[in-house]
From TrEMBL:
Assigned protein family: Belongs to the ribose 5-phosphate isomerase family.
Residues at which substrate binds: T28, G29, S30, T31, D81, G82, A83, D84, K94, G95, G96, G97, K121
InterPro entries: NagB/RpiA_transferase-like, Ribose5P_isomerase_typA_subgr, Ribose5P_isomerase_type_A
Gene name of the record: rpiA
GO MF assignments: ribose-5-phosphate isomerase activity
Catalytic residues (UniProt): E103
E.C. number: 5.3.1.6
One GO CC annotation: cytosol
Enzyme class: isomerase
Stated role: Catalyzes the reversible conversion of ribose-5-phosphate to ribulose 5-phosphate.
Name the record gives this protein: Ribose-5-phosphate isomerase A
Keywords assigned: Isomerase
Length: 220
């Protein structure tokens, strides 16, 4: 089984957590694309979806799923999204697709966050995947200098603008042993919109797809 199959299995497994007549929060990425495709079969039973990116919005609409503004949706029961890495506490690195800020907003507005991924995403220590940080363009250099000061090697994501009109710095070389502390520290740098550590709001359940099926990992 390859990574794509693992993603598909996890995405399909998440479907059973979706309740009828609700508005569901939907993340971004190739795993979530598979979830949206699976969600299409129950579109008549859903009230709609709050989307975390323009890409997911387009895909949801293509399947006839109503996309609802978060401001009118109120608190959501469930948010489903992928991740670039997860540790066993379900603290995540996200933002490989550049949608981290909206993802963090929708995750924070949701009672339950189910993360879907293939088994390669489970790691002991976060940080092998370069940490994405959304930055206001005029602050690129000042933020980059601060990131070097804390031990990272920031690289500007080339030819990429976020849905919010900002840039992404991908930070290499961080071994993230204290995710909660680092999430807050980086978010305090002026010019940072948000960073891709999801520790203040970790996932509640991780569904990992692999050749032996779907493994459930819950917070300890
Ligand atoms: O955070 C994300 C997008 O901003 C994605 O969830 C993350 O990059 C995982 O992507 P994929 O499912 O394609 O492996």
């Amino acid at each position: 089984m390859n990574q794509t199959d693992g993603k598909r299995l996890a995405a399909e497994a998440a479907l059973k957590y979706v309740e009828e007549d609700t508005i569901i929060g939907v993340g971004t990425g190739s795993t979530v694309d598979k979830f949206i495709d699976a969600l299409a079969e129950m579109r008549m039973k859903l009230r709609g979806a709050v989307s975390s990116s323009e890409a997911s919005t387009q895909r949801l609409r293509k399947h006839g799923i109503d996309v609802v503004d978060l401001n009118s949706a109120g608190r959501l029961d469930l948010y489903v999204d992928g991740a670039d890495e997860s540790n066993r506490f379900l603290q995540l690195i996200k933002g490989g697709g550049g949608a981290l800020t909206r993802e963090k907003i929708v995750a924070s507005a949701s009672e339950r966050f189910i993360c879907i991924a293939d088994e390669s995403k489970l790691v002991d220590v976060l940080g092998e995947f370069p940490l994405p940080i959304e930055v206001i363009p005029m602050a690129r250099s000042t933020v980059a200098r601060e990131l070097v000061r804390i031990g990272g090697r920031p690289e500007l994501r080339q030819n990429f603008t976020t849905d919010n009109g900002n840039i992404i710095l991908d930070v290499h070389g961080l071994s993230i042993t204290e995710p909660l502390k680092l999430e807050q520290e980086i978010n305090n740098i002026p010019g940072v919109v948000t960073n891709g550590i999801f520790a203040l709001r970790p996932a509640d359940l991780l569904l990992l797809g692999s050749s032996s099926g779907v493994r459930k990992v819950e917070t300890e």
